[in-house]
């Protein structure tokens, strides 16, 4: 009797597995290459349904290339575009502008992959765009009296896409100096905030801001000089300032404590 029950359950499992597999059995295999033709390892690429303007969080649609740049997609039925950095800014781990297969910055020009029960396996080569160059951004933060601002929180906002540095990852030293990396030839803005005391993880009350400063919007290139930011006392529109600057402050500070991100 027990053997009969086991056999029945096993048959049901095979049936369900087969049905599930049939919906995801169509394969798209390929190789991701750097712009020079060498394999691009350990880089995430994504298949996004054509009706979606955001990445779908599904391991079948988001894969990371192997050490030799190889990848395989097993997709449910539908229509997809293939891309790198879909709707995302370049990052240190993936320093590329958004690019769609076969080689376009515009999704309207991307190849559409139609996946159904008749789709045969397909092998493709996807070449990433040239990696963005990285250079150092530096500066100094002082108060209105010209004294160095120690432990001012520095944020870098990407205007045209490009990784930003969120508040809490970089702080000024005792001389008020800061330094961080960013991508060349892209627009940014630097912001500095001074608190009455350093915010703590999972804070229950908003931190008290004692000074705030913005740079202008700039394009980072070889002519970019060190910045000087002068903190202005913040007394009005606290909620607006908090929402504008500090939306991810608690998360960033938590990451700093857990992962030991250097200043």
Report the C-alpha radius of gyration, rounded. 24 Å
Q: Choose one word for the global shape.
A: elongated
CATH architecture of the largest domain: Sandwich
Fraction of helical residues: 10-25%
* Count of beta strands: 16
Spans of at least 5 consecutive residues whose pLDDT stays below 50 are: 4-24, 248-263
- What's the domain count? 2
The CATH top-level class label of the largest domain: Mainly Beta
Which structural class do you get from the secondary structure elements? alpha+beta
Tally of DSSP helical segments: 3
Q: How many strands, which pairing sense, and closed or not: the largest β-sheet?
A: 5 strands, antiparallel
Portion in strands = 25-35%
Q: Ends: how far apart?
A: 67 Å
Q: Can you tell me the CATH superfamily of the largest domain?
A: Carboxypeptidase-like, regulatory domain
Give the topology:
Blueprint: H1 2-23, E1 27-33, E2 44-49, E3 62-64, E4 70-74, E5 78-84, E6 99-100, E7 113-115, E8 122-127, E9 134-142, E10 153-158, E11 165-171, E12 177-183, E13 187-195, E14 209-214, E15 218-219, E16 227-230, H2 238-245, H3 249-259
Parallel strand pairs: 1-8, 9-16
Antiparallel strand pairs: 1-4, 2-3, 2-5, 5-6, 5-7, 9-12, 10-11, 10-13, 13-14, 13-15
């Amino acid at each position: 009797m027990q053997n009969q029950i086991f056999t029945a359950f096993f048959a049901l499992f095979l049936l369900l597995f087969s049905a599930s597999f049939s919906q995801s059995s169509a394969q798209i295999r390929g190789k991701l290459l750097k712009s020079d033709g060498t394999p691009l390892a350990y880089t995430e690429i994504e298949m996004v349904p054509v009706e979606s303007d955001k990445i779908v969080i599904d391991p079948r649609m988001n894969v990371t290339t192997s050490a030799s740049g190889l990848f395989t997609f097993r997709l449910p039925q539908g229509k997809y575009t293939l891309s790198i950095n879909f709707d995302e800014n370049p990052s240190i781990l993936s320093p590329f502008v958004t690019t769609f297969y076969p080689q376009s910055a515009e999704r309207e020009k991307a190849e559409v992959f139609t996946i159904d029960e008749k789709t045969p396996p397909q092998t493709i080569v996807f070449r990433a765009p040239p990696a963005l160059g990285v250079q150092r951004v530096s500066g100094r933060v002082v108060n209105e009296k010209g004294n160095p601002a120690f432990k001012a929180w520095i944020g870098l906002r990407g205007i045209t896409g490009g990784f930003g540095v969120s508040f809490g990852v970089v702080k000024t030293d005792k001389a008020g100096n800061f330094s961080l990396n960013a991508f060349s030839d892209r627009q940014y803005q630097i912001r500095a905030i001074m608190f009455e005391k350093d915010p703590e993880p999972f804070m229950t009350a908003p931190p008290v801001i004692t000074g705030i400063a913005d740079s202008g919007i700039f394009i980072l290139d070889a002519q970019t000089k060190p910045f000087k930011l002068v903190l202005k006392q913040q007394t009005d529109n606290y909620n607006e300032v908090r929402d504008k600057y500090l939306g991810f402050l608690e998360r960033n500070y938590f990451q700093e404590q857990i992962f030991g991100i250097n200043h």
